[in-house]
Amino acid sequence: MKRYTPNVADATEEQIAKATKDSIPSVAPLYFAFRIMVACGILMLLIIGASSGA
């Protein structure tokens, strides 16, 4: 909130709405980063399993 007004008590509805919108993180990067991390873990397990099973 301090990014939009120096005095938080005097914030307008528009400033509160902007601060609220900016506080919501973007979900797509986290979603795909998690999926990539899980895929890498599964790939490593498959590689370890294939190398120790031979």
UniProtKB/TrEMBL annotation:
Protein name: Cytochrome d terminal oxidase, polypeptide subunit I
Membrane topology label: Multi-pass membrane protein
Coiled-coil ranges from the UniProt annotation: none
Pfam families named in the record: Cyt_bd_oxida_I
Recorded family membership: Belongs to the cytochrome ubiquinol oxidase subunit 1 family.
Membrane spanning residue stretches: 30-50
Single annotated GO MF: oxidoreductase activity
Record-listed E.C. numbers: 1.10.3.-
Domain of life where this protein originates: Bacteria
Primary subcellular site in the record, as a coarse category: membrane
Cleavable signal peptide: none
Keywords: Cell membrane, Electron transport, Heme, Iron, Membrane, Metal-binding, Oxidoreductase, Transmembrane, Transmembrane helix, Transport
Subcellular location field: Cell membrane
